[in-house]
Amino acid sequence: MIEALGIIALLLTLCSIVCLIVGLIAPSAFTGLFKRNLGRKKTSLVFSGITFALFVIFIILAVNSPTSSSSSVATQKNSVVATSKTVITVKPSPKVMPKPSTIAGLNITRDTVMNRLVNADPSINFQPSSSVNGITRYMAEKGQNGIELYGNADNLVEVASTALLGTTTSDITGNTVALIYVLGVANAVDSNSTTWVTSTMKEISTDWSNGRDTVKQSTVIDGKKFDISAMKSDVLDSVSLSIYSSQESNPPTKSKPSTPKKTNKPKLDATVKATSQYLIVTNNEDAEWTSCDYSIDYDKNPDDFYELGIFSNYATIQPHQTLQIPWDQITKMDGTKFVYTGAGTLPDDLYFFCSVNNTDKDWSSY
Predict the structure, then answer these.
(1) Count of helices and strands (H, E) across the chain
(2) What's the confidence (pLDDT) of residue 227?
(3) Which of 15, 177, 286, 320 is the most buried (most CB within 10 A)?
């Protein structure tokens, strides 16, 4: 029964997407349906809403389908090289070592989350990737969305999903689907989270409309902490979800050494400067930096510091590239923006690390 309803929901979703595209091109085609010409904007809003609602129903039905998809995941494990066009192949790390420290888990296995997501979309293909903070990572990328599973196979410690959103009218359909995948990931980990995640996305849309560029929301459901952060810019918007045990004060992948001054990581070859508006970082190396995480005041207050995480628009720096990072993009969990008052000098507790050829390197201002 659930499978039949899921198929119906999927067919209706596809029809709604077609109607959305037609409405953007020729809104007059629906004059008979609405008894008047609503115009492109109103027509796109109507069908975007319908598409979102139908896709949410489809994701919930698919993720909670009783049909086992363990064979789908097994097939992925046996044919990890074969990927669809929409999945970006991630080169496995030569050595992926589980983190030996005791991190509270989510009490859910890697295969369970994979099975539920593959039920919803069989083209999702998880592959092993480089570890983060010594924690085993599996990744999948689908369109504008990235999904990451962290931890041992028998008990994940963190699940994350990020939607990258375009800022033009033509991006509406892709943005809607990307946001639905964030909802689907939350539902795959805990179906009781659906109401909160949906409500938070509506609040983010309202806050963005009111000029608030950075929004962060958190809640605890069934012993799991759900963090959602949203950032708006002129080029690209993003919505990120991180799920981890409520026993942890911070996401395990975001945790840095308790005293970064004593870190034994290799050092980044970086040139770092400050202006009144920007933190300016130059990659002086011949290799790409990825998953860069920036923090300020971590040593002073590890539970309430400023951070610009690995899902930001500034997380990747190409070889010999210079990035200008606005200070107000570095925020606390409650959305408080960092206010720079250094008159050209760097903050005395600035720290960041990046992955370089599957090896973590860092830089600090002290």
Answers:
(1) 7, 14
(2) 93
(3) 177
198 close to 192: Cβ distance less than 8 angstroms: no
β-pairing verdict for 322-326 and 350-356: unpaired
Alpha-carbon distance of 324 to 27, in angstroms, equals 41
Q: What is the pLDDT of residue 181?
A: 81
In angstroms, rounded to a whole number, what is the distance separating the alpha carbons of residues 255 and 132? Answer: 10
pTM of the model: 0.54
First-to-last C-alpha distance (Å) of the chain: 62
* 193 close to 226: Cβ distance less than 8 angstroms: yes
Kindly give the pairing relationship between strand 359-364 and strand 350-356. Answer: antiparallel
- Give the Å distances, CA to CA, from 125 to 83, 95, 156, 356: 7, 20, 18, 24
Contact at 8 Å (CB) between 185 and 228? no
Alpha helices in 129-193 (DSSP H): 172-189
Beta bridge partners of 295: 307, 351
The closest of 221, 225, 164 to 195, measured between CA atoms, is: 221
Token pair belonging to 69: 């998809």
User: Which of 24, 41, 23 has the alpha carbon at shortest distance from 33?
Assistant: 23
pLDDT of residue 7: 63
Token output for 149: 């599973």
Query: Count of CB atoms within 10 A of residue 199's CB?
Result: 12
- Among 346, 326, 358, smallest CA distance to 270 is for 346
DSSP 126: -
Q: Name 163's bridge partners.
A: 145, 239
Tokens of 342: 């250094």
Residues of the chain with pLDDT under 50: 67-101, 256-259, 261-262
